[in-house]
Amino acid sequence: MYSFGYKKPTAIQKRFIMPFLKGRDVIAQASSGTGKTSAFCVCLLQACDPHTRETQALILSPTRELAVQTQDLCNNIGHHMGLTAYACIGGKSTEEDIRRLESGVHIVSGTPGRVFDMIRRKSLRVNGLKTLVLDEADEMLGKGFKAQIHDIYRMVPPLQIILVSATLPADVLEMTEKFMTEPASILVKRDEITVDSVKQYFVSVDEEKNKFDVLMELYDSLTIAHAVVFCNTRKKVEQLAKKMTREKFAVTAMHGDMPQAERDEIMRQFRNGHSRVLITTDLWARGIDVERVSLVLSYDLPLAREQYIHRIGRTGRMGRTGLAITFVRHDELRLLRDIEQFYATQIEELPANIGEQM
């Protein structure tokens, strides 16, 4: 564990371990970047029996990239324990999934559609499952995945259920009563969800067409190692990427319509530094961890206030400092204040001398 940079458990990890090891269902909420994923991965690995090739844990994630990232963490630690994990995601070869699953893996990390297909084909055998984890649980139990999650739940034996997210709205918590048994709840207050290590600012923009000029001014005044820029639509992602490329920025763009191989290559380029700016939709807002992200810029104000929390959580992770800047049109200021009030946080106007302060 020390070789992966773990020295002592974070607050969420301390509170998570005991109820998990006692076999209880757990609802775990904590700020982004505080170690929720490593908490459940380490516990799952500890609970797995390396002497059988049965799949003993299933982790469901809303995006392919998050499922692969979780697989990699499980494999990096599990390698020392004789345990293996496999990412079962759409956009990859079905035949490869069938071959790997039938050869036996201890932990499956996947997206709901492909996992359901593999269970239906009986390539993913669920008889030995002991634990089901819903990562980014509020997204998994939202409209997009709710039916698929229920289909999978009906196909697995009685097991331990773990829900993990930075944001857990009341309607999601009410829903858990239908399929969880007296869960241990590790919840944080709304005013504790934002991370102190992330400095939050907004920039008031007169008109939509002025945003790009403001962005260029920001880059003139700040030294930015790696940045993630969020837009609300795929079309705007592509348009902004073209504009920044014309200005000689090392930019990549990613959204859900892209083939998986292309998305994987974009992630690789961004992680290894070949690309310094990743422009994306909220596909990238949840769970993805790239160590060197120093700036999260919301080119568009997010459509849902929960997404604001997930976006800014891409920086300032595990105690590192980060900067979050949101572009806000005059007619959107009320929505920004709503986010501030709901999370009891403060989003100040970006100072003119921000470059001197950073």
From TrEMBL:
Domain Helicase C-terminal positions: 197-358
Keyword S-adenosyl-L-methionine: no
EC number: 3.6.4.13
Keyword tags: ATP-binding, Helicase, Hydrolase, Initiation factor, Nucleotide-binding, Protein biosynthesis, RNA-binding
Entries under Pfam families matching the protein: DEAD, Helicase_C
Catalytic reactions of this protein: ATP + H2O = ADP + phosphate + H(+)
Domain Helicase ATP-binding: 17-186
InterPro entries listed in its UniProt record: DEAD/DEAH_box_helicase_dom, Helicase_ATP-bd, Helicase_C-like, P-loop_NTPase, RNA-helicase_DEAD-box_CS
Example GO molecular function: ATP binding
Enzyme class, first EC level, given as a word: hydrolase
Functional description taken from the UniProt entry: ATP-dependent RNA helicase which is a subunit of the eIF4F complex involved in cap recognition and is required for mRNA binding to ribosome. In the current model of translation initiation, eIF4A unwinds RNA secondary structures in the 5'-UTR of mRNAs which is necessary to allow efficient binding of the small ribosomal subunit, and subsequent scanning for the initiator codon.
Similarity field: Belongs to the DEAD box helicase family. eIF4A subfamily.
Subunit structure: eIF4F is a multi-subunit complex, the composition of which varies with external and internal environmental conditions. It is composed of at least EIF4A, EIF4E and EIF4G.
Protein name: Probable eukaryotic initiation factor 4A
Organism: Leishmania donovani
